[in-house]
Design brief:
This protein is an alpha/beta fold. The chain is about 35% helix and about 20% strand. It has 23 helices and 26 strands. The structure holds cytidine-5'-diphosphate and magnesium ion (MG).
């Protein structure tokens, strides 16, 4: 393999220091601005030192592929020979592969079959500042492993954010690679309104304001936003301008286009992949609307969501920096300077944004040991850990219930493969088994978004009138299905502008409906990837509710005989939210999608259920007690009265059962 370095890359100036540090230390931290050459050059330095089995991790598949290709090109070898990559469903490596690009998730999965990571002599954890769960798990795992693998070398790279944390964790030297960057002028051009249409106009105005002679990088929050913007800009017929989308799910060939030479001007519409993972060459200008999709646990909905949020100051700086690499640049931010000043400095690590139950589930499935012993960079709060363990036990994912002993059940193992919130994942698995997955996919996606039915204060009555059609008397979950069907029909029959108008007239929030669709198609795709069978909608509602109940056992309530208040799990008292179709005539036993605490505790999205379902689905949770054993001549057996409690709720009382069998 031919190893040569580009003198123009900032990292080349520190080549000898880095090589020496790797030789003398087990762990080295390399920090430097994006584009300084860390990702492409570090594995070559390790190779030069005689390392022949290097794992080089990337947060994203798209980066693993393109970095492997780039290094292979630089070293003048075939991709898949000495330099290769392996990501889920796609392995381009061979026996000769010395530099192996992998996603950090994949390396973590390899721990399972290779506890001491024996197949590697070197591990480069790239982009550690991203602080995804996978990265935090890997860092913790390596921390434990390193004393037992003295021959293993680790290089951690990071943008210049919070570098000392990594150095302290491993007692490692830090080598800073000073990027040679050009000044970037920041211009603030806040949008008049914050809707999607205005954003597109804002982008068009920004393009018009910029000089015509340089490539532009526009940051958008997702694939859908990119497609919308591409269509919108195509309509503008900008002369000698090529528009290129860039996102993770794009076909590999299309991703590669950003590295090709081109005449005229290029506008790249990219997700966060272009923020640090991928360096789009030749960018002179950046347009930054200031948003990104962030996976976050919603305390209110108690589910993991993917809301679009304002980015942190550090992210904004990274984005701006993308246009100062070859010459002076201009970055137009589509928000106000005061807005920027008010933003958080850094994006919080994923472990702080994730439901602890899913963290625990993943740790258990990866066999990482008890959470309390794991050397986390930021250990989670112990209270949250207990809650998480309880929830996993409730969902049937953990077989034992002693904190620390995380024995995963078969269900738990399947749940860990689903990228959804554990409660929702549990529902999907049950639905698959019960043959009602198509319906439950719609409902579960609805539970991950905000209710698209709007009730503006000054038009409540009109809105309720419009929404009445969708109400199913015994189940708000079924109302979701009715609404979904209606929306699908309308969407198929109306032009897109007529559909938007319909939404407005009928008090439906267009963007949330779109979000609902997006979440649904994504979940459906994932379900299919995992060999679940969505089938067709229209299953028996009882089955749908039983599937939902598997994820909602601690959201069951029993109504006072003569009141409206429900006794919930662990003595909580709640009422059904006034907007619910069940509020007027509440049934005796319900399950609710969420429990929301405001002036009092409210159960939102409710459905009537049968106590026997609870007994059945919650078999591992219920307590049974017996009283008044007596001889029944009629039955010829000793009979007793049975009482079934779920989290202290007497789901069944006074059921006559044969005592002999119980005893
Ligand atoms: O990792 P870091 O951000 O420090 O830099 P890098 O990704 O190693 O990029 C170093 C240089 O290689 C940049 O100028 C990139 O534009 C270039 N590069 C490229 O042209 N094609 C690739 N597939 C990857 C990097
Ligand atoms: Mg990099």
């Amino acid at each position: 393999m031919k190893i040569a370095y580009d003198e123009a890359l900032p990292i080349t100036a520190r080549h000898d220091d880095i090589a020496a540090a790797i030789r003398d230390h087990q762990v080295v931290v390399v920090a430097g601005e994006t584009g300084s050459g860390k990702t492409t050059q570090l594995p070559k330095i390790a190779y030069e030192l005689g390392r022949r089995s290097i794992a080089h991790t990337q947060p994203r598949r798209i980066a693993a592929r393109s970095v492997a290709k780039r290094i292979a090109d630089e070293c003048d070898v075939e991709l898949g020979a000495e330099v290769g990559y392996a990501v889920r469903f796609d392995d381009r490596t061979s026996a000769d592969t010395a530099i192996r690009l992998v996603t950090d998730g994949l390396l973590l999965a390899e721990v399972h079959g290779d506890r001491r990571l024996e197949r590697y002599d070197t591990i480069i954890i790239d982009e550690a500042h991203e602080r995804s769960l996978s990265i935090d798990f890997l860092l913790g795992y390596l921390k434990q492993l390193l004393p037992r693998r003295p021959d293993l070398k680790v290089v951690i790279t990071s943008a210049t954010i919070d570098v000392e944390r990594f150095a302290e964790m491993f007692d490692a030297p830090v080598i800073e690679v000073s990027g040679r960057t050009y000044p970037v002028e920041i211009r603030y051009r806040p949008l008049a309104e914050s809707d999607a249409g205005d954003m597109l106009d804002g982008i068009a105005d920004a393009i018009a304001e910029l000089p015509r002679d340089g490539d532009i990088l526009v940051f958008l929050s997702g694939e859908r936003e990119i497609r919308d913007a591409a269509e919108f800009l195509a309509g503008k017929k900008l002369p000698r301008t090529e528009i290129l989308p860039l996102y993770g799910r794009l076909a590999a060939g299309d991703q590669q286009k950003i590295f090709s030479d081109h005449p005229g001007r290029r506008i790249v519409l990219a997700t966060n992949v272009a923020e640090t993972s991928l360096t789009v060459p030749g960018i002179r200008f950046v347009i930054d609307p200031g948003f990104a999709r962030v996976s976050r646990f919603s305390q209110r909905l108690k589910v993991q969501r993917l809301p679009i949020e304002p980015i942190s100051q550090a992210s904004a700086a990274q984005r701006a920096g993308r246009c100062g690499r070859v010459a002076d640049g201009i970055c137009i931010r589509l928000y106000a300077e005061e807005d920027f000043e008010g933003r958080p400095e850094f994006t919080d690590p994923e472990i702080q944004r994730t439901n602890l139950a899913s963290v625990l589930l993943q740790m258990a499935s990866l066999d990482l040991g008890a959470i309390k012993d794991f050397p986390f960079l930021d250990p989670p709060d112990s209270r949250a850990v207990t809650d998480g363990l309880n929830l996993l036990y409730e969902l049937g994912a953990l077989g034992t219930h002693q904190s620390g002993a995380q024995r995963l059940t078969a269900i738990g193992r399947s749940m860990a493969t689903l990228p959804t919130d554990p409660r929702l994942g549990r529902m999907l698995l049950a639905a698959d088994r019960l043959g009602c997955l198509a319906d439950v996919l719609v409902i579960v996606s609805a539970m991950s978004i905000q209710d698209p039915r709007e009730r503006p204060l000054d038009h409540q009555q009109a809105a309720d009138e419009k929404h009445k059609r969708f109400v199913e008397p015994d189940s708000d979950f079924l109302s979701w299905l009715t609404l979904w069907k209606y929306i699908r029909e309308q969407r198929d029959n109306l032009s897109s502008s007529a559909f938007r108008r319909m939404c407005r007239d009928e008090y439906l929030h267009y963007l949330r409906i779109r979000e609902w669709h997006d979440v649904h198609s994504q979940l459906r795709r994932t379900a299919k990837d995992l060999k679940l069978k969505p089938g067709n909608p229209g299953a028996d509602p009882d089955l749908v509710h039983q599937a939902l109940l598997t994820g909602l056992l601690s959201h069951v309530g029993l109504r006072d005989l003569d009141g409206r208040e429900f006794l919930g799990a662990r003595q909580a008292k709640f009422m059904i939210f006034p907007g619910s179709g069940l509020a007027k005539k509440p049934p005796r036993v319900v399950m609710v999608g969420e429990l929301v605490e405001t002036s009092r505790l409210w159960g939102r999205t409710a459905a009537k259920i049968h106590p026997e379902w609870v007994e059945d689905v919650g078999e591992h949770l219920v307590n049974r007690s017996y009283s008044e054993p007596h001889w029944s001549r009629k039955r010829g057996a000793v009979m007793a009265r049975e009482r079934v409690l779920l989290y202290g709720i007497p789901i069944i009382v006074d059921r006559l059962v044969q005592y002999g069998r119980v005893d």
